[in-house]
Amino acid sequence: MSDKHFLVTARKYRPQLFGELVAQEHVTGTLKNAIRLDRLAHAYLFTGPRGVGKTTAARILAKAINCTTDPAERADAAEPCRECDSCQSFEEGRNLNIIEIDAASNNKVDDIRDLRETVRIPPQGNRKKVYIVDEVHMLTTQAFNALLKTLEEPPAHALFIFATTEPHKVLATIQSRCQRFDFRRIPVQETVSRLQEICDSEGVSADDGSLMLIARKGDGALRDAMSVFDQAVSLCGTELQHSTLVEALGVVSEELFFEVTDHVSAANVPGMITLVDGVVSSGYDLQEFLDGLAEHLRNLLVAKTMPDTSLIEASEATRSRYADSAESLTQTQILRLLASIDRTVDSLKTARQPRLRLELALVKMATLPATSDLRGALAQIEGLAAAEAAGPAAARPVAATKKVPAPVEAPPKKATAPDEAPAKQKPAPAPVEAPPKQAAAPQDPPDAGPPDSPARPSPAKPAPPPVLPPSPPSPGFGTVDIFGKPALGKPALKTKAPDQQSSATSDTEVAVMEPPGRGDAIDGWETVVEAVTASRIHLGALLSHADAEIRDPSTITLVVPDEFHARVLREAHDDIIEGLARIGRPEVQRIDFEINGTIRPESEVASMDVDPQEALNKICEDYPAMRLLMERFGGEIVW
């Protein structure tokens, strides 16, 4: 066995200059400027995650302050020279003017009192006496208070550098006396670059996948990544292979995550159950598996939505694979899968049977129905509502406005007796369709036949209206059994009294006349509804089911079913008035509401800030089809 002492990579390659610190340029640049300008504070607070260089930066700062080499001869006029007696004594651990204190084991008030006694002693042969207090948040409240006065007015030769991973535990009175520097997590690519430099120095060969795996295992801490690197070299020797490292380090393979999304695309439930069995058999931590799956789905979302895959922390080959795999899923599917993983992570911590919980979550992911854009369904519903608003004739393509040929009569035959002609005459076929609540079909006058034909006798009673077959379901809305009558249908139109029915209807066209009601109908009201719907869809949906009448030249009356509709539609006042002005009604400046036969001015309708959830619940309660859509597709509020 060699007598050479082994030094771990994290200590062997610990930075000795500001320029060697990785991904902390915002800190090192400020500190170097302070040294050049001789504007050093008496106390610094370095905060950030573990293993990112806080204590290392404190040591380099202490060494640079006491470096005896002329600044003009040093790199950047701020870096320590590492050649003078002060620098060498510190690196060899024999400099008595730079003192490191572990606050985790020296956290009592007596320890701080001893520190206060030594602060008054000036440095020997150096410019400053530097105290580096690591894990300063471990000090007790009494110890912090004992340090306050010394920290506020320290001797001119004293400088304090505090390092902590939990700055929120440091008293605000301490933080206010320090200059604070926040250290960042080290990106994966920066960690990979540093590991590659170490591999070149150590004569180790490693593929991109291996270094990427080690860097991701470090989770933003370069020191942790170096520890994993030492473990990998001990396992694989001087050649690091990704497949070997995955098995040795207990990391969940990316192949498993790609299998999960493949099973989701194929709705493969047996494959999901088999995959969970493999995860458990391999000894993977289920929580770690879910965390990796969430990151995998995040990468798929980036590949799906971003123009490039630079935000995916993986090798080029893996990025290309993410781009290809993302084609089999939609953006909405990926978001739903991420939401499912998020719920499972929270419930897995308290589950009595974690494996069953994981299997249930993955099986649900594999059986999620294909997502559908609700905007298309809502557009069809709005089209149905617009058709109903135009009247029953427009709602059905083959409704009463369709021209129906007049009943065809058989050609007259010669009768042996006058009383036999009507008996032998063929009855006229029933019309194809008739509008709802249609009055008796108009009869031809007796002299409508050809001049040579005998006069047709008038029937004693008009024929009863034919029974119409049920209307076929609207295309794109499933079957009648699911939706029943149109969900957004308006109340049936009032019919005129029998004496008001027009008798001038053409013999080739049957039409339904909408009654004027108590006020005049508004020509172009559909244009107003469309304008409101374009700006605020929920107000337009409610407005399309309200009857509008002009009962006063300056006032429009909206007939609504309840107080809720009136309160919500009050928010559309400006849009309605503006829309009426566009269709030639600029004189209308006021809106009244008729609720259950009672007319109320707009000012008497309670104002409200429309709660979207309340409005949605009300719509779902009034229209079962909307509730079915929301439950089926997992709809969410978008206004």
In short:
With 639 residues, this protein is an alpha/beta fold.
Topology summary:
Layout: H1 9-12, H2 25-37, E1 43-47, H3 54-65, H4 85-91, E2 98-102, H5 109-119, E3 129-134, H6 141-152, E4 158-164, H7 172-175, E5 179-182, H8 188-202, E6 205-206, H9 208-218, H10 222-236, E7 239-240, H11 242-249, H12 254-266, H13 269-281, H14 286-305, H15 316-325, H16 331-348, H17 354-366, H18 374-390, H19 392-395, H20 421-424, H21 480-483, H22 525-535, H23 537-543, E8 547-552, E9 555-560, H24 563-569, H25 573-582, E10 590-595, E11 598-601, H26 612-622, H27 624-633
Parallel strand pairs: 1-4, 1-5, 2-3, 3-4, 6-7, 9-10
Antiparallel strand pairs: 8-9, 10-11
Description:
- The chain is α/β, with parallel strands linked by helices and 639 residues long.
- Among the domains are: 174 residues, P-loop containing nucleotide triphosphate hydrolases (Rossmann fold, 3-Layer(aba) Sandwich); 62 residues, Helicase, Ruva Protein, domain 3 (Orthogonal Bundle), CATH 1.10.8.60; 113 residues, Zinc Finger, Delta Prime, domain 3 (Up-down Bundle), CATH 1.20.272; 84 residues, GMP Synthetase, Chain A, domain 3.
- The chain is 44% helix and 8% strand.
- It has 27 helices and 11 strands.
- The strands form 3 sheets. The protein has a 5-stranded parallel beta sheet with strand order 2-3-4-1-5, with helices on one face. It has a 4-stranded mixed beta sheet with strand order 8-9-10-11.
- Strand 3, helix 6 and strand 4 form a beta-alpha-beta unit.
- The chain is elongated, with a radius of gyration of 42 Å.
- The two termini are 73 Å apart.
- About 19% of the residues have low confidence.
